[in-house]
Design brief:
The protein is an alpha/beta fold and 244 residues long. It has eleven helices and eight strands. It is 47% helix and 17% strand.
Length: 244
């Protein structure tokens, strides 16, 4: 009997390489793997053979999608793509995970033991199995990225010569939808109402905005001090690139 694994991608450029490596390993284990954008796979869920959907998160806002997949006959498992940064506040207050949604899934996978421990402490009564698995994305970076991107890296070096790369992550303070929208999206995505977690998020947003402004201030100064280098800024996909 054919086993199907579905790998929906939310931010393709971020998730693609790790998911390809995971797909290869699953294929070696006898799975038929389908990978595509999240929207495309969700919309086709009722036409796809019953299988396992491996989702990138389990926030409260995603409960309708999970129920839709289950109603189509699929099983759902969760691997948090952002598990490398784990806030106790986000787990304890059900921002990254939700009791309702986690009751619907079969298994959950974690980057490390600390993340799994925090989850187990909060959701110990739920039937879903939990495992520390590491991250396919991290495995790709460690073992395959250098060889896969050797030619691309050489093209970049030829183009920019000696350069300094600044990959930024200011999706809250510099969101592409405008001021304060990053915080609103984060709150909406986690269905957050509790005052303590709202205060935490607002503090996080203030810090993100302050850091963003500091980068805007010091980058020209750094560039002036080191004219022999080119400076390459790679904003997070959720950022407003025009600010740079």
């Amino acid at each position: 009997m054919t086993r199907y694994l579905y790998l929906p991608l939310e931010i393709t450029i971020r998730e693609h390489d790790g998911k390809v490596m995971l797909a290869l390993q699953a294929a070696r284990e006898g799975w038929s793997v389908v990978m595509g954008t999240r929207v495309a796979l969700y919309n086709a869920a009722d036409q796809l053979p019953e299988g396992v959907f491996l989702l990138k998160s389990a926030t409260p806002q995603e409960l309708p999608q999970v129920k839709h997949l289950k109603n189509c006959g699929h099983k759902v498992c969760i691997f948090d793509e952002e598990g490398i940064v784990t806030y106790r506040e986000f787990i304890q207050n059900e921002v990254r995970y939700s009791r309702e949604i986690d009751a619907e899934v079969e298994q959950l996978y974690f980057w490390g033991d600390n993340q799994k421990k925090l989850f187990d402490e909060k959701f110990s009564a739920l039937p879903a199995q939990t495992f520390t698995t590491g991250s396919p994305r991290l495995e790709f970076w460690q073992h395959h990225a250098q060889s896969v991107y050797r030619q691309k890296a050489e093209e970049i070096r030829n183009r920019y010569k000696d350069y300094i790369l600044f990959p930024t992550s200011f999706g809250i303070g510099n969101n592409f939808l405008g001021k304060n929208q990053g915080l609103k999206l984060t709150r909406d995505h986690g269905a957050v109402e509790e005052k303590d977690i709202v205060d935490f998020m607002e503090g996080q947003a203030d810090q993100n905005y302050i850091c963003f402004k500091e980068y805007l201030d010091f980058l020209p100064e750094i560039a002036e001090r080191f004219p022999e280098f080119n400076f390459v800024i790679r904003p997070h996909p959720s950022e407003n690139s025009s600010a740079w």
